């Protein structure tokens, strides 16, 4: 606890030092931005509360585990967005330039024939150190590589015996559950304990969750009315069983 407190005090002292090095106009601008952020945050929370109250009155939402989970994820994304904004504001001009350069550069990672990781930065420059636009080619290579891996894994699965499939499915379910618990613990990390490594891991988790949700939404849109009805029935049945199990525990 002493180490955490000391780190928090040091971060506050550094932030204060950076603030006092600003000119009067810069301080005024920073204070104005912070006031606007706080105002937007209060307004957003007020609108969300009003919307939830209206939806509850019309029974469009109920306080079941699914709704609570969705709201919790939304609040977590908002929390991390605010943390990232504050972190960016505390950076010096040199740190901001490095941060912006990092995020402008495409960070697609691929593997070469020797299964070694190759950063796209290493393959978008020619002999004269001139940048070549090969982003689309790299994306297609990644898609083809992932498709080959998926087809190989599917073929191996269908070659298994029933007992091997059962064991494989059990191990896969345990691994997915373990990963989900680790992600939940990571997202619940207190702000004062967050470092650059944890922050990057959390960003990856949020990005994966958002991509998974978007893919699920698109799959649902492509369903026929009958398929949607069956999907909703199975989903409702799953959450009812889950709630009963939680009550029994």
TrEMBL record:
Superkingdom to which the source organism belongs: Eukaryota
Biased-composition ranges, Basic residues, are 1-10, 30-44, 231-243
In this chain, the stretch annotated as Disordered covers 1-46, 224-249
- Protein name, entry field: Uncharacterized protein
């Amino acid at each position: 606890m002493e180490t955490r407190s000391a780190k928090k005090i040091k971060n506050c002292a550094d932030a204060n030092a950076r603030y006092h090095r600003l000119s009067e106009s810069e301080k005024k601008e920073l204070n104005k931005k912070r006031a606007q952020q706080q105002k937007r945050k209060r307004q957003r929370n007020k609108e969300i509360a009003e919307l939830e109250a209206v939806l509850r009155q019309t029974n469009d939402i109920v306080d079941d585990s699914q709704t609570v989970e969705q709201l919790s994820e939304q609040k977590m994304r908002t929390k991390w967005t605010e943390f990232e904004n504050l972190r960016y504001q505390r950076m010096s001009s040199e740190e901001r330039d490095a941060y912006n350069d990092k995020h402008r550069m495409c960070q697609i990672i691929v593997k070469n024939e020797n299964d070694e990781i190759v950063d796209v930065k290493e393959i978008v420059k020619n002999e004269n150190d001139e940048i070549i636009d090969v982003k689309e080619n790299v994306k297609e290579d990644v898609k083809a590589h992932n498709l080959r891996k998926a087809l190989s894994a599917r073929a191996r699965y269908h070659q298994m015996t029933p007992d091997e499939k059962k064991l494989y499915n059990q191990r896969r379910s345990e691994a997915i559950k373990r990963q989900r618990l680790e992600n939940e613990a990571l997202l619940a990390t207190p702000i004062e304990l967050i470092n650059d490594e944890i922050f990057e891991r959390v960003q990856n988790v949020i990005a994966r969750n958002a991509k998974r949700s978007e893919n699920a939404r698109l799959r649902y849109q492509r369903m026929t009315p009958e398929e949607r009805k069956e999907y909703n029935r199975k989903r409702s049945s799953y959450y009812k069983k889950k709630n009963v199990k939680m009550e029994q525990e």
